Amino acid sequence: MKLTHTTTTHTRRIFNVLRKWLPAGALALSGALTGTLAHAASASDDAALVKRGEYLARAADCIACHTSNKAKPYAGGVPFDLPFGTIYSTNITPDKTYGIGNLSDADFIGLVREGKSKDGKRLYPAMPYTSYTQLTDDDILAIRAYLRTIAPVAKAAPANTLGFPFNQRWAMVFWNLFNFDSGRFQPDPAKSAEWNRGAYLVGALAHCQECHTPRNFMQGLSSQSLAGAQLGNWTAYNITPDRVAGIGGWTDGELIAYLRDGAAPGKANAAGPMAEVVENSTRFLSDQDLRAMATYLRTVPAQNNGMSATSLPRYGWGSPVQSVTALRNRPLTVLGGGAAADGRTLFNANCASCHGWQGTGVGGKDAGAYPSLLHNTSVGASNADNLTMVVLHGVSRQTNNGHMSMPAFAGELSNSEVATLVNYVTTQFGNPSATITADKVAKMR
């Protein structure tokens, strides 16, 4: 808005000068011209504000949580399955009945930053107001300006299905008492502008800790910030600078590539919730902002998750198959009265064509490459959860370089076959202590 004010001030000064020298007719014309210039400046400012708001909304990944139907963005309805029931995200289109069209700017700021709706109801912390509380007024109102340009959708979100006492919103007063500290981001004058920008992005706008920090028994964020957490059947890994448990062994370039493309060869490939973050959010961020995030993550307190300094990091595991004979079919084994293939047979039939019979991948470091199973965080992790979810549900990740995909095998392989395949992959190419049972696979479906 400062640009509009400044431009209008300049045009008024010009008008005052012209008024001393021009006849009345010309003066009227100059006044009309002044108004036109001011209107154009205001329109330009509005467009810039909306564009900035779109960038900030992408950084905050608003679309991921508020879009269940891509044809109707921001109309809500995304389910959040919690231990005590299901919460559905709200409609944040400008619809005046079911959306946020009737909210004032103050109402919207309170909603985003304090977790309070217009009628005073408390929001559930599926809305990350615990992180958004750090956002500035300007950034929140820029996001609001962008959301005003979204097509309104006249549809209510499904009703939450929470049992007593979790369906009592007033009880959130007590939850907030123990788990929420309201307050704006305060730059550290002893740090660089890049570090402060990274701290704001990681801790407030991109709210990384909401997924990567373990939760306490009340489902509030614990003190082990960014040490890794379980998201349903997925694991959000440790992203502190510990060299074994975290990302201390990653270069800045690898961190930036992973956030931008969802792939850092020799380290990791994004799948599941993180693939969605890349697709909807981080691939749109500027190189400067991605570098700022990497700079800040280098400095957060390291969390070693109880791992020894001599342990291998998640990406440190793996050696290729040395001989093709090791992949040849073995005789079928009878288990429970039926014939079952062993791990190498399943790998050869379902995985080797894309990941290579040695497990080294196909395509090297190209944007569309099939990733190596060696030095891969999902294969070298201490549990096989993420690898199992990838086998069951595949990978879909849109990047700036194209669409990356892997087919889902849930409809092709039984629970026992998935467990056998996953255990073969972790034993042959990754961390052999990471195994899974057919019963757990059944639950993860």
Automatic annotation (TrEMBL):
Keywords: Cell membrane, Electron transport, Heme, Iron, Membrane, Metal-binding, Repeat, Signal, Transport
Pfam family, any one: Cytochrom_C
InterPro entries to which the protein is assigned, alphabetical: Cyt_c-like_dom (IPR009056), Cyt_c-like_dom_sf (IPR036909), Cyt_C_IC (IPR008168), Cytochrome_c-type_DH (IPR051459), Membr-bd_ADH_cyt_c (IPR014353)
UniProt entry tagged with the keyword Lipoprotein: no
Signal peptide: 1-40
Heme among keywords: yes
Classification via SUPFAM superfamilies: Cytochrome c
Subcellular location: Cell membrane
PANTHER family with a match to the protein in the record: ALCOHOL DEHYDROGENASE CYTOCHROME C SUBUNIT, BLL4482 PROTEIN-RELATED
Protein name according to UniProt: Mono/diheme cytochrome c family protein
